[in-house]
Amino acid sequence: MSRDKILAALRQNQPESVPLPSSMPLVRVEILELQAKFKTVAEGIGSTVHLVDEFAAIQPLILARFAEEKRILSTIGELTALPAFELNSDPHTYANVDVAIFKSGLGVAENSALWLTEDQMGIRVLPFITQHIVILIPLSALVPDMHAAYQKIGEAEYDFGTFIAGPSKTADIEQSLVLGAHGPRSMTIFIYA
Questions:
Q1: Is residue 27 very low, low, confident or very high in pLDDT (cuts 50, 70, 90)?
Q2: Domain count, the chain
Q3: Any bridge partners for residue 50, and if so which?
Q4: Is 180 part of any domain?
Q5: Do residues 34 and 144 make contact, with C-beta atoms less than 8 angstroms apart?
Q6: CATH number for the domain harbouring residue 109
Q7: Is the pTM of this model over 0.85?
Q8: Ramachandran region of residue 62, left (φ > 0), alpha (ψ -120 to 50) or beta?
Q9: Cα(191)–Cα(173) distance, rounded to whole angstroms?
Q10: Does residue 24 carry a pLDDT above 80?
Protein backbone atom coordinates (compact mmCIF):
# COMPACT_ATOMS: atom_id res chain seq x y z
CA MET A 1 0.00 0.00 0.00
CA SER A 2 1.42 3.36 -0.94
CA ARG A 3 1.99 6.18 1.49
CA ASP A 4 -0.80 8.28 -0.07
CA LYS A 5 -3.33 5.44 0.25
CA ILE A 6 -2.42 4.92 3.91
CA LEU A 7 -2.77 8.63 4.69
CA ALA A 8 -6.09 8.82 2.80
CA ALA A 9 -7.42 5.84 4.78
CA LEU A 10 -6.38 7.50 8.04
CA ARG A 11 -8.11 10.77 7.07
CA GLN A 12 -11.35 8.92 6.29
CA ASN A 13 -11.37 7.07 9.60
CA GLN A 14 -10.88 9.93 12.06
CA PRO A 15 -12.96 10.00 15.24
CA GLU A 16 -15.52 12.76 15.60
CA SER A 17 -13.93 15.94 16.95
CA VAL A 18 -15.05 16.95 20.43
CA PRO A 19 -14.18 20.37 21.86
CA LEU A 20 -12.05 20.51 25.00
CA PRO A 21 -13.75 21.69 28.17
CA SER A 22 -13.12 25.34 28.96
CA SER A 23 -11.89 24.46 32.44
CA MET A 24 -11.93 21.65 34.94
CA PRO A 25 -14.64 21.93 37.57
CA LEU A 26 -13.04 22.83 40.87
CA VAL A 27 -14.05 20.85 43.90
CA ARG A 28 -13.69 22.69 47.17
CA VAL A 29 -11.54 20.65 49.48
CA GLU A 30 -10.92 21.64 53.06
CA ILE A 31 -7.29 22.47 53.82
CA LEU A 32 -7.07 19.88 56.61
CA GLU A 33 -8.26 17.20 54.19
CA LEU A 34 -5.48 18.25 51.82
CA GLN A 35 -2.95 18.06 54.63
CA ALA A 36 -4.08 14.55 55.60
CA LYS A 37 -4.06 13.35 51.98
CA PHE A 38 -0.64 14.90 51.30
CA LYS A 39 0.84 13.32 54.44
CA THR A 40 -0.59 9.87 53.67
CA VAL A 41 0.71 9.88 50.10
CA ALA A 42 4.12 11.33 51.02
CA GLU A 43 4.71 8.75 53.74
CA GLY A 44 3.53 6.02 51.38
CA ILE A 45 6.32 6.85 48.93
CA GLY A 46 9.06 7.06 51.53
CA SER A 47 9.02 10.64 52.84
CA THR A 48 8.88 11.72 56.47
CA VAL A 49 6.29 14.42 57.17
CA HIS A 50 6.18 16.71 60.20
CA LEU A 51 3.14 18.88 60.90
CA VAL A 52 4.18 21.92 62.93
CA ASP A 53 2.13 24.77 64.33
CA GLU A 54 4.62 27.48 63.50
CA PHE A 55 7.65 28.10 61.34
CA ALA A 56 9.90 28.70 64.38
CA ALA A 57 9.45 25.07 65.48
CA ILE A 58 11.13 23.72 62.34
CA GLN A 59 14.78 24.69 62.89
CA PRO A 60 15.29 22.73 66.16
CA LEU A 61 13.68 19.67 64.56
CA ILE A 62 16.04 19.86 61.58
CA LEU A 63 19.07 20.27 63.85
CA ALA A 64 18.02 17.24 65.93
CA ARG A 65 17.15 15.05 62.92
CA PHE A 66 20.41 15.76 61.06
CA ALA A 67 22.83 16.21 63.99
CA GLU A 68 25.27 13.67 62.52
CA GLU A 69 25.43 15.20 59.04
CA LYS A 70 28.52 17.24 58.22
CA ARG A 71 27.44 19.57 55.40
CA ILE A 72 24.01 21.15 55.63
CA LEU A 73 22.94 23.97 53.30
CA SER A 74 19.79 26.04 53.63
CA THR A 75 18.33 28.28 50.95
CA ILE A 76 15.99 29.76 53.59
CA GLY A 77 17.28 32.89 55.29
CA GLU A 78 14.97 32.55 58.31
CA LEU A 79 16.78 29.37 59.42
CA THR A 80 19.64 31.33 60.97
CA ALA A 81 21.26 28.45 62.90
CA LEU A 82 21.87 26.55 59.65
CA PRO A 83 24.62 27.30 57.13
CA ALA A 84 23.27 29.57 54.40
CA PHE A 85 23.50 28.62 50.74
CA GLU A 86 26.14 30.53 48.79
CA LEU A 87 25.95 30.40 45.02
CA ASN A 88 28.96 28.95 43.25
CA SER A 89 28.80 28.58 39.48
CA ASP A 90 30.60 25.22 39.65
CA PRO A 91 28.00 22.58 40.60
CA HIS A 92 30.79 20.21 41.66
CA THR A 93 31.24 22.27 44.84
CA TYR A 94 27.93 20.81 46.03
CA ALA A 95 28.92 17.16 45.50
CA ASN A 96 29.38 16.48 49.21
CA VAL A 97 26.23 18.16 50.53
CA ASP A 98 24.56 15.91 53.10
CA VAL A 99 21.37 17.93 53.65
CA ALA A 100 19.80 20.62 51.46
CA ILE A 101 16.86 22.64 52.75
CA PHE A 102 14.33 24.45 50.54
CA LYS A 103 10.99 26.23 50.84
CA SER A 104 8.24 25.35 48.37
CA GLY A 105 5.28 27.52 47.52
CA LEU A 106 3.15 24.71 46.10
CA GLY A 107 2.37 21.14 47.15
CA VAL A 108 0.02 18.67 45.45
CA ALA A 109 -2.03 16.46 47.77
CA GLU A 110 -2.85 13.72 45.22
CA ASN A 111 0.82 12.76 44.68
CA SER A 112 2.73 14.71 47.38
CA ALA A 113 4.74 16.53 44.71
CA LEU A 114 6.39 19.77 45.78
CA TRP A 115 7.11 22.50 43.23
CA LEU A 116 10.53 24.14 43.36
CA THR A 117 11.80 26.84 41.03
CA GLU A 118 15.44 27.57 40.38
CA ASP A 119 15.19 30.65 42.62
CA GLN A 120 14.12 28.40 45.51
CA MET A 121 16.81 25.81 44.73
CA GLY A 122 19.76 28.17 44.63
CA ILE A 123 21.25 26.06 41.85
CA ARG A 124 19.42 23.46 39.75
CA VAL A 125 21.52 20.48 40.72
CA LEU A 126 21.30 20.87 44.51
CA PRO A 127 17.98 19.05 45.17
CA PHE A 128 19.19 16.08 43.15
CA ILE A 129 22.74 15.56 44.46
CA THR A 130 22.19 16.03 48.17
CA GLN A 131 21.97 12.93 50.35
CA HIS A 132 18.90 14.21 52.21
CA ILE A 133 16.38 16.78 51.01
CA VAL A 134 14.25 18.85 53.38
CA ILE A 135 11.38 20.93 52.05
CA LEU A 136 9.26 23.37 54.05
CA ILE A 137 5.80 24.29 52.83
CA PRO A 138 3.02 26.39 54.33
CA LEU A 139 -0.27 24.55 54.81
CA SER A 140 -2.00 27.22 52.70
CA ALA A 141 0.16 26.25 49.67
CA LEU A 142 -1.38 22.76 49.30
CA VAL A 143 -3.68 22.12 46.34
CA PRO A 144 -5.77 19.00 45.68
CA ASP A 145 -4.41 17.86 42.30
CA MET A 146 -2.14 18.56 39.34
CA HIS A 147 -4.91 20.48 37.54
CA ALA A 148 -4.93 23.03 40.35
CA ALA A 149 -1.13 23.02 40.47
CA TYR A 150 -0.79 23.80 36.77
CA GLN A 151 -3.35 26.59 37.11
CA LYS A 152 -1.07 28.16 39.73
CA ILE A 153 2.23 27.76 37.87
CA GLY A 154 0.90 28.25 34.34
CA GLU A 155 1.22 32.01 34.32
CA ALA A 156 4.20 32.28 36.70
CA GLU A 157 7.60 33.56 35.60
CA TYR A 158 10.53 31.21 36.22
CA ASP A 159 13.54 29.91 34.31
CA PHE A 160 13.40 26.34 35.61
CA GLY A 161 11.03 24.47 37.87
CA THR A 162 10.38 20.89 38.86
CA PHE A 163 8.04 18.79 40.95
CA ILE A 164 9.79 16.59 43.51
CA ALA A 165 7.97 13.76 45.27
CA GLY A 166 9.73 11.57 47.80
CA PRO A 167 13.31 10.36 47.94
CA SER A 168 14.97 8.91 44.85
CA LYS A 169 13.67 5.43 44.10
CA THR A 170 14.58 2.65 41.70
CA ALA A 171 13.73 -1.03 41.54
CA ASP A 172 14.85 -3.97 39.46
CA ILE A 173 12.91 -6.82 37.91
CA GLU A 174 13.26 -8.81 41.12
CA GLN A 175 11.34 -6.00 42.84
CA SER A 176 14.22 -4.91 45.04
CA LEU A 177 13.54 -1.27 45.93
CA VAL A 178 16.55 1.00 46.45
CA LEU A 179 16.20 4.49 47.90
CA GLY A 180 18.80 7.09 46.97
CA ALA A 181 20.36 5.38 43.97
CA HIS A 182 19.90 8.40 41.69
CA GLY A 183 19.29 11.23 44.15
CA PRO A 184 18.42 11.94 47.78
CA ARG A 185 18.21 8.94 50.11
CA SER A 186 15.56 10.63 52.23
CA MET A 187 13.01 13.40 52.00
CA THR A 188 11.72 15.25 55.04
CA ILE A 189 8.78 17.61 54.66
CA PHE A 190 7.65 20.20 57.18
CA ILE A 191 4.10 21.52 56.75
CA TYR A 192 3.59 24.61 58.88
CA ALA A 193 0.58 26.82 59.63
A1: low
A2: 1
A3: 190
A4: yes
A5: yes
A6: 3.40.50.10420
A7: no
A8: alpha
A9: 35
A10: no
